[in-house]
Specification:
74 residues; mainly alpha; two-stranded antiparallel ribbon; 8% strand; globular
Length: 74
Amino acid sequence: MIKCHLSAIMGAKRLKIADVVRDAEINRNTVTRLYHETNNRIDFDTLEKLCRYLNCDVGDLLEITDDEDGRTPQ
């Protein structure tokens, strides 16, 4: 399973979904699904926009976990 840390990163930076939508020019539904981790895919273009806007690496935003409880593989 892949876990998205968008909500945690946005919280640390005190950003709202509307800020990301407006400033990074990403569709609101896409940002909302990533924020709530209800998405099942992401376009490279969207991933690049998010990383550039949030000033983070892909590995900061996405993480592979063993299962749905969020454990990281050993």
